[in-house]
Amino acid sequence: xxxxxxxxxxxxxxxxxxxxxxxxxxxxxxxxxxxxxxxxxxxxxxxxxxxxxxxxxxxxxxxxxxxxxxxxxxxxxxxxxxxxxxxxxxxxxxxxxxxxxxxx
Length: 104
Fold this sequence. Notes:
The protein is an alpha/beta fold. The protein is built from two helices and three strands; from the N terminus they run ββαβα. α1 packs across α2. The relative contact order is 0.21.
């Protein structure tokens, strides 16, 4: 089983993915590089979209093990688009951190 392997981190492209998010439960105890930015699309994700991907992963992975990132590096794209996409990452993560503080 993957959870019992010596692998410490797994990178998964999750936004707009056809892979069921439930498969994250197989990664118990692993750090997950969570692809919350789609590098194939020129559409800039909103912070709320990023937060939604993070929330979905938190159903199966401990929040402290989630590291939001892009789906697979950065593909060649317009600089303004890339900057917008990358700006959405910390803003989306901040939304979830804020929610978590108020749930405690």
